[in-house]
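ESCALATION

Customer reports they have been waiting on this structure for their group meeting. Please prioritize. Original submission:
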Amino acid sequence: MEPRSFKLLYLLTFLFFSANAVTHVTVPLQTASTGASNATTGIVTGAYMLACMVARPWAGYLVRRYGAGPLLRATLIAYMPVMAVFPFADPAGLLAVRLLQGGCTACFSMALQIGMIDALPEHRRAHGVSLYSLSTYAPAVVMPVAGIRIWEIGETFLYAGVMFALMAAVGTVGYVAVPHLQGAGETLSRDDGTNHRSQRLRALGNPDFLVCSFSMLAASVAFGAVSAFIPLYAAQLGEYDAGIFLALQAATVVTVRFVWRKRIPSGGRWPGRLIAGLLSLVAAASCLLALAGWTGPFGFYSAAVLMGIAQALLYPTLMTHLTFELPNTARNVLLGLFIASADLGVALGGIAMGPVADLGSYPTVYATCAGGALLAACLAVGREDLSKNQKASP
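Update from on-call: job pushed to the front of the queue and completed.
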């Protein structure tokens, strides 16, 4: 693809995730305004990532079977009417549209990422994945604040107008950009399909794949707990602004990803120390949130910066490593499973942590997230030591 084609795809990604970013902050507030419990709010919020998790491997298979372009076109056609329903939905309706939104997002991201990875030379994969990830997070700089302000104004038609405008932009750019992502699917014989399934099953036991997936899962629980409960936690604390927290976190993600886009490891060597350091930042940020009642605004907003640094670098580092580590015949589906681990983590950050918040408190939620991140950091370091020992042995 030409550089202009990549720019169109990055713009499409930006617009797509701008709409998602608005709903990520309005859905918890919209659900809670009906008197729903934290558990119900967590379920509705986490349903999006739960649907993503289930759909990712299937989306990877569909890309291999039909090609990235056709899947992306079908996804956009389904996505636009789903997003238009959000301003008018009750909690039951929100649960349904969040599930559909998650499925569309899974197909969109898998089609774009695999299509771009296939088109990029190996030495530019990390750069391309980083810019794609940057495009997904850039909307979170302003859209969470915009979403909260739209909700505070309380005008349903303003909310609907914003969503309709975003969908019109997604449709227009998608119409121009999708033809650049045309890729032929593969016609697989029965024997080919059986062989590929066998290779995928063997690749599931790959130590790097397992550690990458668990690391992403543990970190994403913390990311999900922030998305689901920071608006409610900030309101409980009283002197904190959730919109500023989310915008600061997103601005950190965008800045760090842009500055470090060419420095992310792009090869087969296991970057264990880097991964462990990023997971330690997740744990530190979670601890600061747990102690926000004592540390004051400085600790609260510092957590946004630390969480943003980890969020900026962890996913592209792990994703790029797996594109080299996984066998080609199993790569699409297993990359889908890896991204599904991130989706599962974000979903658990809402669904599993909701009851923790009900039975305990928000500080208990973030202390639990810190423990999970530290465990994953230990595994990442252990995997690096094991890799060194294997290379040293005759």
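Sent to customer with the following note: The radius of gyration is 20 Å.
Escalation resolved.
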